Amino acid sequence: MGETGGVWYDADIEHVIVSEEQIREKTEELARKVAADYTHVESVLLVGVLKGAVMFMADFARAMGREGRPVEMEFMAVSSYGQRATSSGVVRILKDLDRDIAGKHVIVVEDIVDSGLTLSWLLKYLESRTAASVEVVALLRKPDAIKVQVPVKYVGFDIPSEFVVGYGLDFAERYRELPYVGVLKSAVYARA
Ligand code: IMP
């Protein structure tokens, strides 16, 4: 705790978009929905996309556990080629799945869907590996995602088209540890 009672990062945040409490409640709600939809399967394979989804993956998996739904966990790391704004949707795999997912009921766990290009590539990739089913749970969705028509079955929050940090999301690899999601003060970009 700092001198004013806040943590260092609170001073860098312009405003909070989704609070810690809202994330907790929404995660429970999403897990309840997913658990109810997957009562017929023995186990669900959660595929988290590093690094942004790591916080949500950890909390979502535990929420699924509390709902009595067993899960397995896998992680992938991908990077888009070129500038995000002109991204062709071509994705390079930095870390692949550790095992075969054929016949598995896969749920991709995403922090945020923005252009949706990464996700639409990932869905095709997972389907080509002959998963029994592939769905997506995303904590956050920006307005552009709706244009690309990526089938995100479970969405936590629709947020404005602003750059956000926290709860896994970074700016220059910082702010991932924030327990909430917020917008940075412009002074932070000015000093970067
Ligand atoms: P998409 O392919 O445009 O949907 O990009 C998705 C990825 O971009 C996410 O998984 C994040 O890692 C990153 N991203 C998108 N919007 C933000 C943001 O506001 N803050 C931090 N990272 C973001």
Structural summary, described in words:
33% of the residues are buried. This protein is globular. Helices cover 28% and strands 29% of the residues. Helix 1 crosses helix 2 (54-66). It contains 5 helices and 8 strands. Strands 4-3-2-5-6-7 form a 6-stranded mixed sheet, sandwiched between helices. Strands 1-8 form a two-stranded antiparallel ribbon. The model has no long low-confidence stretch (mean pLDDT 91). It has helices spanning 20-37, 54-66, 117-128, 144-148, 186-191; strands at residues 13-18, 44-50, 71-80, 91-95, 105-113, 133-141, 154-158, 181-184. By secondary structure, the chain is an alpha/beta fold. The two termini are 24 Å apart. Inosinic acid binds at residues 52, 111-119, 163-165, 169.
Count the DSSP helices. Answer: 5
Shape: globular
Helix content: 25-40%
Roughly how many Å apart are the termini?
A: 24 Å
What bound compounds does this protein have? inosinic acid
Q: Strand tally, please? A: 8
Order of adjacent strands in the largest pleated sheet? 4-3-2-5-6-7
Tell me the strand percentage band.
25-35%
How confident is the prediction overall: mean pLDDT?
Answer: 91
Written as H for each helix and E for each strand, in order along the chain, the element string is EHEHEEEHEHEEH
Indicate the structural class. Answer: alpha/beta
Radius of gyration: 17 Å
Low-confidence stretches: none
Largest sheet: 6 strands, mixed
Give structural attributes.
192 residues; alpha/beta; six-stranded mixed sheet; two-stranded antiparallel sheet; 5 helices; globular; binds inosinic acid
